[in-house]
């Protein structure tokens, strides 16, 4: 979007150039300005086709470099004159504008500092070339650039913190801290696509806390919440780091196991069940240990199976485990 805005704004300065410049300067500047605008349009059009983080970071860097090169070229065309010398004022402010614009982009501290350094390098290189680096004017520009950079970084970090908080609220279960159902579905879909491309098996485990309603009715909802938190921590600690665990809904939890076949997944589910049997949560009075167990269904993805079909099948396995007496592991058929 920034590239589109700059590309559209660049030609708008042409009438001012025409009014203030003679022909020897105007026509080279016109060519430079049109080339600058065309380059930004190409950059902007490329950006609409790629949404990956690395690509976005590269596009931002490319945008800064293109603007920086335009600044250097315009200074060279003017012979290095200072802003007080009239028309150059419309060009000399570009480094400050670039740094200020970084405030609207949610960057990390390292990224923000790196981009500010890139912008500063164009200014420093230009002043060194013209031998004006140690002038009072250049020192003032560098001081102002540093001040704008600090303000931009502060705004960036504030934005980033806000976005991360919103992302966590949108993707995490508040009670257990695990990812929610939406993230699980998206993650499982990606893993199925990888498995379909030959990157190994993927299995899922669906857990349900046995007689959880009885725990709530007997000990109260705070105790039930404590059981959910205890099980979430227990489950997360027994699933391989390559997998993902989340709260699927109510007292149901889903574990996604990339690279695990059904026998390996069954072994993990049995370890989780064994850990549950030896665990307990103390009720609010601090006297009564609350014990709980879990039933689980196990399913390995089959070729041609969709995400919905796999989840439906593992849910049938869970139903089989509960119907067979609970506190069991059942392999989905």
From TrEMBL:
- What reaction gets catalysed by this protein? 2 GTP = 3',3'-c-di-GMP + 2 diphosphate
SUPFAM superfamilies on file: Nucleotide cyclase
Name the UniProt key words of this record, in alphabetical order: Membrane, Transmembrane, Transmembrane helix
Species in which this protein is naturally found: Solemya pervernicosa gill symbiont
Q: Which GO terms describe its cellular component?
A: plasma membrane
Q: Give a yes or no for keyword Glycoprotein in this entry.
A: no
One GO process term, biological-process aspect = negative regulation of bacterial-type flagellum-dependent cell motility
* Pfam families reported in the protein's UniProt record: GGDEF
Lineage from the top down? Bacteria, Pseudomonadati, Pseudomonadota, Gammaproteobacteria, sulfur-oxidizing symbionts
Instruction: Name it.
Output: diguanylate cyclase
What are the required cofactors? Mg(2+)
User: So where does this one cross the membrane?
Assistant: 30-48, 60-80, 86-105, 112-136, 142-164
């Amino acid at each position: 979007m920034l590239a589109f805005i700059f590309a559209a704004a660049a030609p708008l300065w042409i009438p001012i150039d025409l009014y203030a410049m003679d022909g020897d300067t105007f026509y080279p500047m016109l060519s430079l300005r049109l080339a600058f605008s065309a380059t930004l349009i190409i950059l902007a059009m490329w950006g609409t086709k790629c949404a990956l983080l690395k690509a976005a970071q590269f596009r931002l860097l490319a945008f800064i470099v293109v603007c920086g090169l335009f600044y250097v070229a315009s200074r060279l065309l003017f012979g290095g004159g200072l802003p007080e010398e009239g028309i150059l004022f419309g060009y000399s402010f570009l480094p400050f504008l670039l740094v200020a614009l970084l405030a609207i982009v949610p960057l990390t501290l390292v990224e923000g500092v790196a981009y500010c350094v890139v912008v500063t390098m164009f200014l420093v290189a230009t002043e060194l070339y013209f031998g004006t680096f140690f002038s009072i004017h250049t020192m003032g520009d560098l001081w102002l650039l540093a001040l704008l950079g600090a303000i931009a970084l502060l705004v960036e970090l504030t934005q980033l913190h806000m976005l991360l908080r919103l992302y966590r609220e949108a993707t995490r279960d508040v009670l257990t801290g695990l990812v929610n159902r939406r993230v699980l579905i998206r993650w499982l879909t990606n893993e199925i696509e990888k498995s379909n491309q030959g990157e190994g098996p993927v299995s899922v485990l669906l857990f349900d806390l046995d007689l959880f309603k009885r725990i709530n009715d007997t000990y109260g909802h705070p105790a039930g919440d404590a059981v959910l938190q205890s099980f979430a921590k227990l489950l997360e600690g027994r699933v391989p780091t390559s997998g993902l665990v989340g709260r699927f809904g109510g007292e149901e939890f889903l574990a996604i196991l990339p690279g695990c076949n059904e026998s390996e997944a069954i072994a993990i589910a049995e370890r989780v069940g064994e850990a549950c049997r030896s665990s307990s949560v103390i009720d609010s009075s601090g006297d009564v240990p609350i014990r709980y167990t879990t039933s689980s269904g196990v399913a390995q993805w089959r070729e041609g199976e969709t995400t919905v079909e796999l989840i439906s099948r593992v849910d049938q396995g869970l139903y089989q485990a509960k119907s067979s007496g609970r506190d069991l592991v059942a392999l989905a058929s």
